[in-house]
């Protein structure tokens, strides 16, 4: 239950004691020298009963008060606030992309021709025509949800094969993307708060963002750069929500050009030049340092609930040579790989973790043996780390490892793109709206640490050990923040940070 600031209600014990104090003082004023309000007395039983009943009223008052506030309301309460603002939860949407056909001759494939995946989910052709062997055919999912997303190379089959076509097709380059489940409370809350912070109307930047977001359910959030391209111009960048299988944030070209861009341009004044783009994904690596309870096997022993091992491995020395993380430098197999660690593991005891940037599954294993030396320890593990690759981070297993990963990924999901220009004149009006301080941060900054500390009571402190992004200078240590560069051209999409390698290490 959320706690409202400056709204305090008494618990049952406090109410009981207040009632007993009032009764005792009242009886004394009436001449009773030593009123009996001790446990077991009639007065104590009555006051306890009153406390129990009134505490429920107070607790319900907090619940109802929370339901009235957009930053704490959930479920029906949040939906009611959204309805007042003309907003509602976005429905689930299907994926889009291309499939490559196998055909013995050029085949006429009509719009609407259906395909199925192994689970029976339906897809259809969006642009009919005559297609030859190996051609890419644009399709979209008829069914909805993140389950409609498919990786490049996955196999679909025609419900009824077109002439000259093999029954099976393969998903083309880039996969089938942007399939999303129905919007959750936190995503709706972000849009509700945006309306309160910057009311939309008359073509202002918030109105432009609102139009882009309502154009298609696959748009998670729109960001506006007024006059960035000059007077009477509006630059809009739209992002897609990450899914369980993909953390990329770009919106598919077919959605962008076929739905979002024409919808927005049709709703805004024709004398304004409107440019709608998506974002450029930039993969990021983040290593955190956590102060967690020590394991019972530590020296001295700890209470548990934090690190699994008494001496968590790999260990990071903040006074050592950067970079401050333990990366895989070579892979022999899914159970044998080389780690750039400072010290050796303890075979048969050391437990390690790895968050796969391929399927976003958390893998944990026991180190069974090792060889090598400082900076190049070859380890063998008892559980395969499927798709482990050079550059991935290995870190010590902790009890709530999965929850820490989920918290970090949830924060990445609520990040927005960077600026589109460094030109001071253009930035007078053309900076990103909303600004990062009002939500949707763009940088690898303290919001990631604050979320970890807020959501996990056992966590005493969190800090950054290492932050890096493709094409950016890495940061070792906690100082500063890593922000997206501006694109090479102001006409290019802005850069959007997305997660790749995430790790958690013991703070010294």
| Beta-strand segment tally | 21
User: Helix and strand string, N-terminal first?
Assistant: HHHEEEEEEEEHHEEHEEEEEEEEHHHEEE
Distance between the termini: 34 Å
- Regarding quaternary structure, how should these chains be classified? single chain
Structural class: alpha+beta
Query: Average pLDDT value?
Result: 92
Which value, in Å, is the CA radius of gyration?
A: 29 Å
Number of domains: 4
Main sheet attributes: strand count, strand direction, barrel closure = 6 strands, antiparallel, barrel
Helix content: 10-25%
- Number of helical elements: 9
- Poorly predicted runs: none
Strand percentage, roughly? 15-25%
| Principal-axis shape | globular
Q: Which strand order spans the largest sheet, edge to edge or round the barrel?
A: 1-6-4-3-7-8
